[in-house]
């Protein structure tokens, strides 16, 4: 049973990939660039059973290939701004749109199970002023 883990170069994604591989599952993961693919392979010791697809949550490209032949999807990636976001929409919109891309691709490919996790942004920023994101 091949499992797609989105965001294999992120902390949570990398841990999920490693754990699934240790349990003997074939794993496909997504990264935003070929350079990140090389870094993921190197960090994991280039294990058998791992395939990597370039797919960015901000683009439709790559998601059909990412989910093709997968029995399950763990969607743990989330686009996250480098600095503190000024508006909630700067975090929520891209995360929502990326999640919808993954869910639609999984649905269209007939994936049996999809698990979606949350983001640090859900708890990492408070709201001092309505319409802005700030540390609590």
Automatic annotation (TrEMBL):
<dbReference type="GO" id="GO:0016616">
    <property type="term" value="F:oxidoreductase activity, acting on the CH-OH group of donors, NAD or NADP as acceptor"/>
</dbReference>
<dbReference type="InterPro" id="IPR016040">
    <property type="entry name" value="NAD(P)-bd_dom"/>
</dbReference>
<protein>
    <submittedName>
        <fullName>Nucleoside-diphosphate-sugar epimerase</fullName>
    </submittedName>
</protein>
<dbReference type="Pfam" id="PF13460">
    <property type="entry name" value="NAD_binding_10"/>
</dbReference>
<feature type="domain" description="NAD(P)-binding">
    <location>
        <begin position="7"/>
        <end position="122"/>
    </location>
</feature>
<keyword id="KW-0560">Oxidoreductase</keyword>
<dbReference type="InterPro" id="IPR036291">
    <property type="entry name" value="NAD(P)-bd_dom_sf"/>
</dbReference>
<dbReference type="InterPro" id="IPR050425">
    <property type="entry name" value="NAD(P)_dehydrat-like"/>
</dbReference>
